Amino acid sequence: MALAHLIAAWAGSRRGTVTALTVDHRLRRESAAEAVSVSKWARAIGLRHETLTWYHGDVTHRIQERARTARYQLLGSWCLRAGVTNLLLAHHLEDQAETFLMRLAAGSGIRGLGCMRVRTPTETVELVRPLLGVPKSRLRATLKLHGGDFLEDPSNQDERYTRVRLRRLLGDPASALPAPAQLADAARAFRNLDAVADRAAAVRLRGAVLVSPLGFLAIDQAACAALPDLLALRCVAAAVQAVAGRCYPPRTTSLRRIVERIHSGTGGRFTLGGTILTLGEGQLLVTREPRAVSGSLPLRFPMSVWDHRFRIASDVSTEGLTVGALGARDLGSLPVLPPGQRVCRTHLATLPAIRDLDGLVAVPHLNWWRDKRLRSSIQVAFEPRSTLLAGVSPLSAIGDCRITGHRGQA
């Protein structure tokens, strides 16, 4: 509510419009009535308001984790439909301190200990946390100054949750824990170190990474083996995240086994984090694991995101169309691929395909269209979200890992 008052004043002075979003998780009987109250308060200060409801069955375990995942999915989907590019969140200084302690206890590495960022791009919207360095006491004082109402979620007092127990410790003057501001400073230092490591890895890997529009990556094995462990781990983690569309990297122990094989020059094929990693012929090839691919979903106008990594834009109606994995069966029916592809058909079967009730309509990456008129109306792009890969050309060639011999050559 403090953020709502601040953004209302900021946007009002610029003749902007802001929509406040409330997620009703339906985990408590009072939640629906609370959402109505928040709606009234938001509208009273000049904001638009919408309530998004999480419909679910019984939720008996991992409640906070599942609620958080559902919350971000609902918020991100609304922003995508509305064409909103920035979603403001009210995380504050104590939230950051709690996150740091939780990740420290979980054994997180440099990136994890950097905790929440002020700006975080996601597949649907950019998350913005303008209050990350502001103590909760100042937010309460700001709200009091504006005469604003607010509600306290009872789950914030439930000591079954680790975050609540840490919050109590941080607020206890007798606790030996560092102050929230000190913990937030530590997180900031790790974020700076993380950025330096990313830049160092990107410079060392320049010209040694292929990012294919077909949604796979390849890394020159010798170049990766020449990196210090910290940077090699980061490189492999970025590749897995990009191909799988993951928000978080795999566990360091799993990554380390891959890096050890890269350093030893050992070949092999492994699955990790929704990807298949193949070591051989001087390169690490990272492709999508078929069983991890997202299911079919309706193709939304004008924009959809499928499998957390492919963005599909359309300037015509997409009613009645769905997008899902091409699959081995439909791939086999397409007369566009000769035998002996360098990238196996297993990966090509994970490419996005557009269908209607009559079957396959289009496979844009393979330049196959049942209705040629759609060719100029639907665009599909592989968008790996990785700062490390940001400077990599999408068609840097490595060895002979190039897809050739069919229309729409990559």
Tell me what you see in this structure.
- This protein has 410 residues and is of the alpha+beta class.
- Strand 6 (209-211) and strand 7 (217-220) form a beta hairpin.
- The chain has helices spanning 2-12, 31-44, 63-82, 93-105, 110-113, 136-145, 162-170, 180-205, 221-225, 229-244, 252-264, 327-332, 345-348, and strands spanning 19-24, 48-53, 86-88, 119-121, 126-128, 209-211, 217-220, 268-272, 275-280, 283-288, 297-298, 303-306, 310-314, 322-325, 352-356, 359-363, 368-369, 378-382.
- The chain is built from 13 helices and 18 strands.
- The longest helix is centred in the middle third of the chain and has 26 residues, at 180-205.
- Mean pLDDT is 87; it is low at 394-410.
Order of strands, main sheet, comes to 6-7-10-9-8
The helical percent reads 25-40%
Q: Tell me the β content.
A: 15-25%
Shape: globular
Q: Under CATH, the topology of the largest domain is which?
A: Rossmann fold
In terms of quaternary structure, what is this? single chain
Secondary structure tally: strands: 18
Helical run tally:
13
Main sheet characteristics = 5 strands, antiparallel
